[in-house]
Amino acid sequence: MTDLSGRVRADPAEPPVRVTTVTTLPDRRLLLVHAHPDDESIGTGSTMAHYAAAGAHVTLVTCTLGEEGEIHVPELAGLAAAEADQLGGYRIAELATACAELGVTDHRFLGGAGRYRDSGMMGLSTNEHPRAFWGADLDEAAGHLLEIIREVRPQVMITYDGNGFYGHPDHIQAHRVAMRAAELAAVEGLAPAKTYWTAMPRSVLEAGMTHFAEASDNPFAGIADATELPFCTPDEEIAARIDATEQHAAKEAAMRAHATQIPATSWLYSIAGNFGAEFMGVEYFTLAVGKKGPGAGPHGWESDLFAGLDVDGAPPRAPVTSAGHR
């Protein structure tokens, strides 16, 4: 017989027997660690859709519900943190829709939905909320991610750099948690072989600044030099350029799913209308951990995050426990 926990009892008087179900995952397994719903679509949407369409197992871990986000849908203003404080729950649905657009079926919230709260921008009182991700115990949060790493056994992980790409406390914390979890996984021989950080090449930013110079919705207004932007990365430091232009429509659809956060008039859609696949479909990364694989061009940029890894055809070992302990 089976008890409510799913454990099998040969005899009601006997102790429960732990049952382990082993699931074989695809040869290529990619893990992404993001701070809030919408970060995955804006920063890595095309990459996620590209690998999902190619048959890789793509796992997205989102660290908070984004409760402190601005709301760009007037009819939903009452969901704000200062009002009904229901935005986080609404954004769960937005994220589900975005993942469906990207073809990603494995999405988790770190520690479970609502375990960690959006901390708001740096220096705000929201940083001190009891559940604010910014104040999370690092090893505890990394332990939640370690459980996922043990289950999925990703060869490649993507997160942010030490400044969280642009300085948001939750992005910085996501970086810390991801890197700490990888350290803990390494002790068990399970760490991803390569860890990438999202990045934007200086040459790409300069091209954007030129394009928007005379635009009324110039997102670079007041910026004289691309190096003033916290996420500006010298081209020679970029390790990978993922050309997923075939997925640009999926990325745009995923972004539009986050309607509370990205207004229909956003400059993101403006530039997408002018550059389309080129803007939406190409994403860049620096390599933080691991050996760079074969690349091309003046800086040897990889075109595949799994470049240099012996993954195709290798039998993946990813035990998943349906009940009890691993």
From TrEMBL:
Its EC number is 3.5.1.103. HAMAP family: MshB. One of its GO terms (molecular function) is N-acetylglucosaminylinositol deacetylase activity. It comes from the Bacteria. This is 1D-myo-inositol 2-acetamido-2-deoxy-alpha-D-glucopyranoside deacetylase. It comes from Micromonospora phaseoli. It catalyses: 1D-myo-inositol 2-acetamido-2-deoxy-alpha-D-glucopyranoside + H2O = 1D-myo-inositol 2-amino-2-deoxy-alpha-D-glucopyranoside + acetate. Its cofactor is Zn(2+). It is an enzyme of class 3 (hydrolase). NCBIfam families: mycothiol_MshB. PANTHER family: 1D-MYO-INOSITOL 2-ACETAMIDO-2-DEOXY-ALPHA-D-GLUCOPYRANOSIDE DEACETYLASE, N-ACETYLGLUCOSAMINYL-PHOSPHATIDYLINOSITOL DE-N-ACETYLASE-RELATED. Zn(2+) binds at residues 36, 39, 171. Keywords: Hydrolase, Metal-binding, Zinc. GO terms for biological process: mycothiol biosynthetic process. Binds 1 zinc ion per subunit. Belongs to the MshB deacetylase family. Gene3D superfamilies: LmbE-like (3.40.50.10320). Catalyzes the deacetylation of 1D-myo-inositol 2-acetamido-2-deoxy-alpha-D-glucopyranoside (GlcNAc-Ins) in the mycothiol biosynthesis pathway.
